[in-house]
Design a protein that fits this description.
3 helices; globular; binds fe (ii) ion; DUF6445 family protein; DUF6445
Length: 239
């Protein structure tokens, strides 16, 4: 059988997942259950002010292709002020139905939460991954381009086996990430089916379980004003 599908085809019966292959459980991404989308999260003027304050920041860290970091583009911390951050956290707690969120404290890894991430078309590509379970239970992204490429939002993925079988998408305990769960150092993009795409819209907040395989769908732009700008958040909560 030889066919190429980026997404799991609806009209074709796929072979079963090979029984000897490492796998992941599949948890279908369902709006209101394991991911949430809210438009116009802030008042338009406030979202524009957040965007310009991010772009005016003077201190940035650089990722690919400028350094050996795995992450692309450039980023700067403290993107939202505490009032704005509280508004987001209150909303997140209400939808995930938890009383308490906190940011993981790690001496090994920097948890880049409340961090503005600016990535141009030439600087990055989709990289399906899960957020390390020790550092994140829920993640959020606030998109901040007034005129984005709408297909450059966030996508969820599921494993695509060599025989084209569609596998799972979530890392369960005791594993923390895909490297542990699948016993591989990395997987090519072709090892994934795209499952769900969330469009990029200005001032849209998305929240999702960080253990579901996901990635920025694509990047765009070539200067400060046109590159894909988003603020990302990572929280821990009680299981
Ligand atoms: Fe992530």
């Amino acid at each position: 059988m030889s066919f190429k599908h980026q997404k799991v085809p609806k009209s074709v019966v796929l072979p079963s997942v090979p029984s000897d292959a490492p796998g992941l459980r599949y948890e279908k991404p369902e709006l209101g259950s394991n991911y949430w989308v809210v438009d116009e999260f802030f008042k338009h003027e406030e979202a524009m002010a957040i965007r310009s304050s991010c772009l005016k920041k003077e201190v940035w860290k650089y990722g690919k292709p400028y350094t050996k970091e795995l992450w692309p583009g450039m980023r700067t911390p403290n993107a939202l002020n505490s009032k704005q951050l509280k508004k987001i956290e209150k909303y997140v707690k209400s939808v995930i139905k938890k009383n308490k969120l906190w940011v993981a404290d790690s001496n090994k890894v920097v948890v880049d939460t409340n961090t503005a991430i600016l990535v141009g078309a030439e600087e990055g590509a989709s990289r399906p991954h899960v957020d390390n379970r020790y550092l994140c239970r829920y993640a959020a992204v606030l998109y901040l381009n007034p005129d984005p490429i709408t297909s450059a939002g966030t996508s969820f993925y599921r494993l695509k086996y060599a025989n084209e079988a569609a596998g799972g998408n979530i890392v369960d305990p005791p594993y923390a990430n895909l490297v542990d769960a699948l016993n591989v150092s990395s997987l090519p993009y072709s090892a994934w089916y795209k499952d769900i795409d969330i469009e990029n819209r200005f001032n849209r907040l998305i929240i999702f379980k960080g253990s579901i395989v996901h990635s920025a769908s694509e990047y765009f732009g070539d200067d400060l004003n046109t590159k894909r700008l988003a603020i990302t958040f990572f929280w821990m909560c009680e299981d």
